[in-house]
Amino acid sequence: MENKEKLLDHDYDGIKELDNPLPGWWLATFYGAIVFAAIYFFYYHIGNGPGPKEELAKGLAEFETMSAVGGSGKGIDVDKLNAFFHDSGRIKDGGAVFQLRCASCHGVNAEGNIGPNLTDKFWIHGDGSLAAIAKVVTEGVGDKGMPPWGAILKPDELYSVVAYVKTLKGSNPANGKAPQGNEVKD
Length: 186
Hints:
Radius of gyration: 30 Å
CATH superfamily of the largest domain: Cytochrome c-like domain
CATH class of the largest domain: Mainly Alpha
Mean pLDDT: 85
Helix content: 40-55%
CATH topology of the largest domain: Cytochrome Bc1 Complex, Chain D, domain 2
Number of helices: 7
Largest sheet: 2 strands, antiparallel
Low-confidence stretches: 68-73
Number of domains: 2
Structural class: mainly alpha
């Protein structure tokens, strides 16, 4: 009859209520939320926590580094592109990104499908240099249906896939699409 001691002295329509304590996990969550709210308030509203304007500025700065390279080529780190081009691990990573994102249009071996053949010495956009390839991959080619990958890929993924595409030149896969664009010299 332990429950009789916990019974409250009132009832509602014949229903008697027990005076049970709240579960420990529930109380811990409740008090934890109060502590978190106090810390949050003091850090962001009274202390040095970043405000909305600072958060916006930080987000825009991150977007600038992750987003498309401007028409002037700003943001392309040519030294980093060259380093990726000479790093077999980065080229292998670029091959994986290419297979995931680009092979549906350019073919598994970049022989050309919907998109152009990337293995020959003819280029529709740019001169086939690392910087030109990076610009096309980053900005896309709207009139040809190529999306701008600069806002989708991380910078290292973008540089890796550019290095990978550059290594494909002269690989001459079977069933390669006919040359398109202008012939470029190395």
